[in-house]
Design a protein that fits this description.
The protein has 332 residues and is an alpha/beta fold. It has eight helices and 13 strands. Strands 3, 4, 5, 6, 9, 10, 11, 12 and 13 form a nine-stranded mixed beta sheet that branches. Strand 11, helix 5 and strand 12 form a beta-alpha-beta unit.
Length: 332
């Protein structure tokens, strides 16, 4: 996450089971809350191990903190590309790369694409994104100078890749989905800004954009799982809660106080499209003590929590992708 103030040092482990509604794959009906079948089951598609594998690689010393323009971030990009290929997620452009210049450095985003199957709704796009860069080499602390960026934001990248794997298995997704991994976030949201402007020039019909930022540890003493930046700008959080039938997402006052909506990769899409574009995070200013420091290591992440959260979010995004009307809207 770009330039936020860290307060507090508490780390608490939380786990809870996921309840979702079982939905029919072939009835063609709008999957609103009232139309969801009443059967309840647990979604266990995303595993802690797959998230752990991604975070451990991206946050390894081999990648030297993934600074934009570095050899380390290029290794990260290749890793992400190979994951998307293995899931049979197609590139949106001629290749998976979206190349641009970041303060004179060669840089690229990685963009995967699953086309919707509805002849009309496939022209509407949902974007799921996270940044895969970090701040690279910093002042050494006890001999360690690599800011590995596990929570910020290898955790978000792991979530996006896991959701790409899930949606690649689905044959009934009406709207198209882009899986977008950005570089250049830590030096001014440059990657997401470039991609948002490029997609705007191509007249893409954006329905909603969701950015995943620092979701590696659970929040402290909250009755919801994650918070939405810019919560009141649209009805997206409310609708997602409706889709799953409980309060999955809510507003964090500290996020509003520190204007986090404007400080991560959702903002360039909001600015370019004026469509619902938000970040989902669990960094609550008390639960992680290593922001932009060498201590942001893969071993501190709670992978059971992360898997539980992603498994809870997937049904909301699936319903969002299949609703036959545009239920997600900006608030007036």
């Amino acid at each position: 996450m770009k330039n936020i103030l860290l307060i507090g040092t508490v780390l608490i482990m939380v786990s809870c089971k996921t309840k979702i509604r079982e939905s029919s794959e072939n009835d063609g009906n709008d999957l609103t809350l009232m139309e969801q079948p009443s059967d309840i089951e647990t979604l266990n598609f995303v595993t802690p191990d797959e998230l752990k594998e991604t975070v451990y690689y991206l946050a390894s010393d081999e990648l030297e903190g993934r600074a934009t323009g570095s050899e380390g971030i290029e290794k990260a990009a290749v890793y992400i590309e190979n994951k998307l290929k293995s899931y049979k997620v197609q590139p949106y452009f001629d290749t998976y790369r979206d190349y641009y210049k970041a303060n004179g450095l060669d840089a690229s985003n990685v963009v995967g694409y699953i086309e919707g199957n509805d002849p009309v709704l496939k022209n509407e796009f949902i974007i799921l994104g996270a940044h895969y860069d970090h701040i690279g080499i910093v002042k050494a602390v006890v001999g360690d100078s690599i800011a590995n960026g596990a929570n910020d934001d290898a955790s978000g990248v792991a979530a996006v890749l896991a959701m790409a794997r899930y949606f690649a298995t689905k044959k009934n997704i009406k709207r198209s989905i882009l899986f977008t991994l950005y570089s250049g976030e830590e030096i001014g949201l440059l990657g997401s800004k470039h991609l948002a402007e490029r997609l705007k020039e191509q007249h893409i019909n954006l329905y909603a954009m969701i950015n995943f930022e620092m979701i590696g540890v659970p929040m402290v003493d909250k009755n919801y799982e994650a918070y939405f930046t810019g919560h009141d700008l649209s009805n997206m959080a409310t609708k997602m809660n409706d889709y799953v039938g409980y309060t999955l997402l809510d507003e964090l006052p500290k996020a509003k106080e520190f204007q986090l909506f404007y400080r991560s990769d959702n903002y360039p899409f909001y600015k370019a499209f004026n469509k619902p574009s938000h970040a989902i995070s669990t960094f609550d200013f008390t639960n992680f003590d290593h922001y932009h420091e060498v201590g942001d290591e893969a071993g501190l992440m709670d992978y059971e929590f992360m898997a539980d959260l992603v498994n809870k979010l997937i049904p909301a995004f699936e319903t969002m992708s299949n609703s036959t009307t545009q239920e997600i809207k900006m608030n007036e």
